[in-house]
Amino acid sequence: MNCTNCGHEIENNSVFCVYCGAKQIPVSGASGPSMQTYMNPNPVPPQPNYANTGAEVSRMVGTAASGIADTFKATDSALFSNIGNKICGYAKVVCWIGIIGSVLAGCGILFSGCQYSGEIAFGAAIFGLMVAGIGSLVSWVGSLVLYAFGDIARRVQAIEEYLRPGR
Questions:
Q1: What is the pLDDT of residues 17-76, one digit of tens each?
Q2: What is d(CA 87, CA 153) in angstroms, rounded to the nearest whole number?
Q3: Of all helices (H) and strands (E), which one includes residue 36?
């Protein structure tokens, strides 16, 4: 027998369809359950059988991602507005904190080596200067990458505003 809801072939005398779960209701006045005696009062047209399920899954994931993005745009617009400038400002603060921290650490090593004499004091001085210089350079390069990301975000936002209809 075939399901009256989805049309799949199911076992004779089935009360429910194993494919769509629709209950097969007996027709009044019929004798015994059979293909002719079961009928779904609210048939749903058969769903299309997608040959390319990968494309369908990709479409569903894209739709879900778009919905999530729209939700964030609608609810957190203040958080994401002007995000490029916020990232650039954060990069400047991180850079200065890194440079100041590296210089202070280098000076601490330099001055802690002053209590010794000879090669130990010279080694501490060199190591302190290296910590201050290399630490500052690493902080600057890291912040430069973060600043570049913020600048890209700022430019993409400007392009989006330019292309938005009714601007």
A1: 878 878 877 655 545 544 444 555 566 666 655 555 566 666 665 666 565 556 555 555
A2: 8
A3: none
Nearest to 3 by CA among 31, 48, 42: 42
Burial class (CB in 10 A: 0-12, 13-18, 19+), 39: middle
Element spanning 22, H or E: none
The Cα–Cα gap between 52 and 73 comes to 32
Q: How many angstroms separate the CA atoms of 161 and 163, rounded?
A: 6
Helix extents (H) in the chain: 53-75, 77-80, 83-113, 119-163
Please state the pTM of the whole predicted model: 0.48
For residue 11, the one-letter residue type is: E
Query: What's the pLDDT tens digit per position in 119-141?
Result: 888 888 889 999 999 999 999 99
CB hemisphere CA count around 79 (13 angstroms): 6
